[in-house]
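User: I'm curious whether this sequence folds into something compact or stays loose and floppy. Could you predict its structure so I can see for myself?
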Amino acid sequence: MTLTHTHMPARGVAPLRILALACLGTLLTACAAPRPAPPPVVAPAPEVIEVTPLERAQNLLIEAEYTPEPEPSRQAIDAVLALAEPAPGLLLRAERLWSLLPDAGLGNLADRYRGARLAMLVDEPGLAYERLPSVDDDRDRSLYYDALALYAELLSGRSEWGAALRARVALDQGLFDAPRRQSENQAAIWSLLAAQPPGQLERLERVTDDPAMPGWSALFLGLREAGDDPDAFAQAVRNWDQTHPRHPAQALLPELRNATLRFIEPPRRIAVLLPLSGSLGDLGNAILEGIAGQFYRDHGATGSLLIFDTAGEPDLADAHYRNALQQGADRVIGPLTRESVERVATIDSRVPTLVLNRPSSPLAPPFAALSLSPEDEAQAAASEALRSGRDRALVLVPESAFGERVASAFRDAFELQDGRVTAEHRFQARSPDINAQIGSALGVDASEARIRRVSRQLGLALEADAQIRADIDVIFVAGPARDLRMVVPHLHYHRAGRLPMLATSHAYEGRPQPMLDSDLSGIRFPDAPWLYTELNPEPALQAELAGSEGQDTAADRLPRFAALGVDAVRVAADLPRYQRAPHLPVHGVAGNWALQPFTRTWTRDPAWVEFHAGLPRPVRPDRVIEPEE
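Assistant: Here's the prediction. I'll summarize afterward.
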C-alpha cells in the first residue's frame, strides 16, 4: 500500500483558517438559543389597612359632625346601628345627628325607622313608637318590611294585639325569600291569634281588606276545635285547605302538627305550694282538695304529690319552691298570693310552674298563671254584651279597689272591641242616698230637670215620668252579692230593668238563696260550670270531694276554688304542650281555658248564668241577652 501525503504551502493556510473560523462562528450563532429577557421588576404592593366596623362608625360620626348635611349623618347612624353592641357614647352621638335630620328625623320612613331603632337600643320602646307610629308602604321593599317588623314588635309590647296581628300578616308576604325570618314571623302570628279577645277571631274571618287574614283565623279556630285528637286535626286541616288553598300558613302546619300531637311525658311528682294555715287556710285547702281529687284520678298510679304550706308568706314560698326543685318535682302548682308569686317567679327554674295569681309584670318561661280573676270576668262581660249587639255601656261599681279593677278591665275590653262606655259611677251601697246615686248615674235627675224647665217655659204643671238616659243599651253592675241586693232594686225602681244587666260571679254566693236573691232577677253573670248540675262535666268528682251529710269541707264552702284546683292539675300536666300550641283549649270545670302567650296567663271562658225568681239558671250559649219586660 502506498501512502500519499499532500503538503500545502504555508501561504494558503491562513486564509482558509480564517474562513473556517468565520463559518464556525456563523453556525454557532445560528444554533444558539435567544437570551432570556431579564425578570420584570415587581413594585411592592400597597399596604392594606383593614377598618373594623367600630372604626368605620367612629370615622363616619366624626365626618358627619363636621359636615352639616343629611347624607353623612344617615351613613353614620346606619354604621352605628350595624354594630353588634354600640357603646352608649356612640348611641348618644348618633341620636344627636338623628335629631338634626330634616323634619326632626320624622320626614320619611327611612329616618323614622332609624330613630325607632336608636330608641330601642337604649330600651325606650315608648319613644320608638312615637317615632314609628305607623308604617306606610314604600318603594324600598326591604326598608318597608324591616320597618313593619319593628312596628309589629312595638305594637305587641303595647298589648295592641289586633294591630300587631295585622302588621305581622302584612309582613309575611314579604318574607318568602327569607325562610327563617318567615318561620319566626308566622310563629308570632300564631301567638297573636291566641292573644285576641273572645269573639275577635270570628270577626277576623270576615275581613275583606286582607285576603290572608281570614285564612289565618279559620285555621286557628279549626285547630282549636279539633284539640289534640289526630284524626280531628287532620280533618280540620283538610277542610281548611279546601277553603284556603295555597295559603301561606301551609308553611307552619308541620310545626303545628308536631306541637299539637307530640307525646308529653306525664308528671310523676307535682309540688303544690298553698297557704294551708293562717287567714287564707280555708281557701288554700279548697284548692288542694280539688288538686288532690283530680291528680289521684289521673296520675295516682304512677305519680305523687309534694305538699308545702306557705302560710301566705313569700319567704316560705321561696324556700318551699327551691326545696321542691331539690326533691325532683317535674311540675309545680302555686303559690297563691301575688307577693309570693312575684317572689318565686324570680327563681332560676326549668320546671313548668303554674302559679295561681297574676303578678304585676308578665311572667317568663317556665312560669304561667291560672287564676279566678275578677278582671277576666269583667272582660267576659264586655264580650258578652258586644256579642248581643250592645255597644253603649253604663258602668256601676263599688267605690273600692275591687270596683276600680273590674271597671278598668270592662272598659278596656269593651272599647278595644269598638264598644263605648258612655258613663261610669262609683256607688256606696250602704249610703242613705243610694237611690239618688243610682238615679243620677242613670240620668234621671237630668230628665227631671228637663221636665221642670219645659213646665216653666209652658207655664203648665206637667205630669211626666223621668226617663233614664238614652245613650246606654247595657249596664255593667259589679260588686259582692250583699251590695248588689241593695243596688239592683233601685235600678228596677228607676225602670232600668228593661236594659240588660251584666255582673261578675260575685253576684252569687255559691248556694241557692231565692228569698235573699229575689231582687237580683235579670242579672246575668259568668261562673264556673262546677256549681251547676246541668253544666258540671265532672259530677262524680264533685261528689267525691263533698263532705258527708252534716259535715262540709273546704271544697263545699268554696266550690269555685275547688274547681280551680281541679283545672290546675289538667293545665299543669300538659303545660309544655300548651306553651308550643296555644290554640289548644283546656275544657275545665271552672270554664274553658286558653293560654295568652305574651302575658303567659290563662284566660277563662266561663258559663253564663242568670237569676230568675232569685235562683241562678244556666243560659243557653245561643241565647242573646235581652231586657226584662
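Summary: The mean pLDDT is 88. The longest strand covers residues 420-427.
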